[in-house]
Structures are given as structure tokens and as C-alpha cells.
Input
Amino acid sequence: MADIQLVAEPGRAEGSRASRRLRHAGRIPAVVYGHGIEPISVSVDARELRAALNGEAGTRALLQLSVGSEQHLAVARQLQRHPVRHTVTHIDFQVVSRDEIISAEVPISLVGEAVAVHRGDGTVAQDLMSLAVKARPADLPPHIEVDVSELEIGSTIRVGNLSLPAGVETDVDPEQAIAVGQPPQVVVVTEQAEAEEGGAESAAEEAEAAGGEGAGES
Output
């Protein structure tokens, strides 16, 4: 997959007020760091950033970052988002080498239909939403698909059951659960709850009766 071109303008002013002005102008404050370079405060066009990170590779896309007269191969790190609009408000770019192994969180996507679970009125619970992996930048997958079609009630798909893409490894405990076939929920009514419910019904009936008698007397 070809690298994505993105222009980062250096020399942005520091501080929250300056950052707000940048965002109002359609630019996102950012920092470029890594591979021995001094961290560089930059800004990127919000629309260009959104287009760069909304492709197939998502936030794991390899970026050819133009910073002034220099070119850096980089990946997006530490995206900060607005709490309501969820738009990016700040981003870090880490300079990388094509041959180095880097770490990343890759989202897990459940695919297929767990027929046996649904026939038993159960549910599929996803316990792990993303997986910490290590790989070369170009080998990082946009997501990891986990097929739940063979899942049954009481069974579990674990990290150790995954077939990771070539060049991708994980140090996560192989016993860590990813998806679990859960039985249907059973509501247990205790004797105390039944008694409280019965008492409440009796009180309501007495109140209704009293109200009826009062209406008859008037």
C-alpha cells in the first residue's frame, strides 16, 4: 500500500489559546518526534488529516510527512479527541523506519454469526476490543477479524486461538478471552423480593380501596 502524503507546517505557537485559534482556522496542532530528532511543534490541515486516517489502514497508515524541507516516514500516535464531537484536537506523529518493529493497538472485529449461541437464546460477549501487537509499520493490519460462527454457549475464543497475519506478533496472554458465548440471562426472584412485592401490592390495594370508600361518602 502506498504511503499517504501529509504536509505539516512547522513553527506553530504554543499554548491552549494558540491551539484553539488553529482549530478554528481548520488546522490541528501536532508534534513530530522520534529517531533522535528534537520534537517539532507543527500543525496539519484538518481535512487532509481526516482523509489520511480514514483510509483502509486507519490510524495505522504510513505517512510521508513533509515538515518544511524535510521528509519523515511517520505513524499517528496519541490522538486526542473532542469529548462531544469526537474530532481530533491534537495528534502526535512518531517518526519510524520501515525495518523497525513498532508496537500498536489494533482493533478486533467480530465477524460471522454465532448460530448455536443465538439458537440457545445466548449472547456473544466481546471481552477484548483491541490487541497490542508488534510488527514492522507496513505489516500492521487495520484490524484483526475474529470469526465467531463456531462459537457455542459456554465456549470461549482466546488470544491463543488467533491466526495473526505474517510478521505480526503479540505478547498478550494467550489465555486472554476475546469472545465468550454466554447463556441466557436468568432472573432469580428471592423469597424476600416476593414478600416485598406482595406487601407493595397489598398496600396499593388498600390505598385504592380507601380512596373508593372516600369517594362514596362524599
User: Anything to note?
Assistant: The domain at 4-96 is CATH 2.40.240.10 (Ribosomal Protein L25; Chain P). DSSP finds four helices and twelve strands in the chain. Residues 191-217 form the longest helix (27 residues). Residues 195 and 201 are 10 Å apart (CA to CA).
